[in-house]
Amino acid sequence: MNSIRRNLLATGAVAAAAAAAPRAFGQGDSSMSVYERNNVRIHYQDTGSGFPLLLIPGGGLNSVISYFDNIAPFNAIEEFKSEYRCITMDLRNANGGQSSGPLEIDRPWDSYTDDQLGLMDHLGITEFMVMGFCIGGPFIWNLLRRAPERIPAAVLAQPSGFDPKIPNLFYEGNMTGWGPTLTARRPDITMGIVEPFLNNMYRSKGDFVFTVTREFVRACQTPVLVLPDDIPAHPYAVAMESALLAPNSEVSLYPWKRPIDRIPIAVRHIRSFLRANQPATNT
Questions:
Q1: What integer pLDDT is reported at residue 3 of this predicted model?
Q2: What is the band of 13 on the pLDDT scale with cuts at 50, 70, 90?
């Protein structure tokens, strides 16, 4: 039992999670639904049964649920819905998705984390595990910074990170590949809003994993499993550095996506990792 779990027991947070068990640890309704908070509208899917597992699709700022059907190395919903209650969502303002809201220039990463934690609150879920692809890596570190007592384990698959050799990769890519499409369908958002939003998201915080420091990762006690990739948007060096810093980390075989017959081995590692770190629940 690590220190976070001991602290949970001491503060009574586990008891709060157990009180929410009829909803949180039960079965999703297998439908696409909408969660609304003020001027934010989040399109999400809740399917499967068991301990809650938040699944964050890849695709950068165009992260949408259909990623798991069309782009992902494997369909995490189909793989894990028989054992876990799988919750996933379209990212706010993703092109091709159905979630919407303002661009919060001064807090870009935290605004998305608000949506993720708000959705889990809406579903009555206190404690949940999380697996994220691509941009899900920075999101997971931010979730662990914001709500460590709620997340007993996390899986970072092909996580995004900052490469000092190409420091403007995400800023420039989104200025051409995300912003113009968004502003074309949202007259309330202009490129004059998109530019400082992306600057604050990717350039002013342009280091390591964007959302937290190396000191945070070194002190983070949450078990994490890292599945590195090695393309410009998913730098191998950053993934491995985070795994080496985190005191309770594991790393998958590498490469794990090719040849394709390695993917089932990586999925088995994920499954065993989640099972090993899932808290006991009273349902």
A1: 44
A2: very low
User: What domains lie within the chain, and their CATH numbers?
Assistant: 3-165+211-277 (3.40.50.1820)
Question: Please, are residues 138 and 159 in contact by the beta-carbon 8 Å criterion?
Answer: yes
How many Å apart are CA 265 and CA 244, to the nearest integer? 22
- Tell me phi and psi for residue 259, to 5 degrees: -60, 160
Q: Is 206 helix (H, G, I), strand (E, B) or coil?
A: coil
Token digits for 61?
Answer: 């700022």
Q: Six-digit token pair at 89? A: 């969502």
pLDDT at site 26 = 58
Q: Could you report the per-residue pLDDT of 207-266, keeping only the tens digit for each?
A: 999 999 999 999 999 999 999 999 999 999 999 999 999 999 999 999 999 999 999 999
pTM, two decimals, is 0.89
Neighbours of 1 (CB within 10 A): 8
| Tokens, residue 273 | 């990792």
B/e letters for 66-94, b = 16+ CB within 10 Å, e = fewer, are: ebbeeebbbebbebbbebbbbbbbbbbbb
Cα–Cα dist 149/151, whole Å: 6
User: Closest Cα partner for 79 from 48, 54, 52, 57?
Assistant: 48
